[in-house]
Sequence to fold (223 residues):
Amino acid sequence: MSARTRYDRAIEAAARPRKNRARTPDKDGPASLEDIIELLIERARNEESITVGDLMDAVASRSFGPVLVVPALIAVLPLIGAIPGMTILTGMLVVMIAGQRAIGLEHFWLPERLEAIRLDADTVKKGGEKMRGTARVIDRLFRTRVVFLTGRTGTWVTALVCVGLGLIMLPSALLPFAVIAPASAVLFLALGMTATDGLMVLIGFVLSAGSAVGAVWYIVPHL
Fold:
């Protein structure tokens, strides 16, 4: 199945009505960061506000990688990530999604209250549009390689690392821009899983180690 066909099917899924439920990843979901951004923009189009659940449903994912991209992307987007409380929200999403993957679940579930949190649709759309050019550049870096790091064991390790990064994101709300490092690490890991690019997953591990060191040096003294 072509990448364009996957994208078209994911667009159709983004337009379906949302129900609170456990979600099973769709193997025909988006295959790149640009596709994921387009899905979020499409979901926000012609709406005044959208919920966290809407955003998660917009990504008809072939794996947990694209699903993890959503909170990480929200955290690093200037227009959205700067909203008060957004760092805590995205950190919680990363911990819950990655945690469920780490214990071997084939679907993920979010509390109804978390799914019902509303965001300004225009802010989501504008943030996504500003990220389009960067997404195209990032997508060129990813390709299938070193695939053993994206296999079953590699995915489990990546999920555990993302849980740790999500926990680091929570206190990052106390300091300006502190969330950028752990959220970027989650983004690299999630995109690496999506593209079965083990080299980028390895780079994500390096960024994760740097985020942990940064948390000890920059965040912990301010707690």
User: Anything to note?
Assistant: The chain has one domain: 3-222. Residues 79 and 126 are 8 Å apart (CA to CA). Confidence is low (pLDDT under 50) at residues 1-11, 13-20. The radius of gyration is 16 Å.
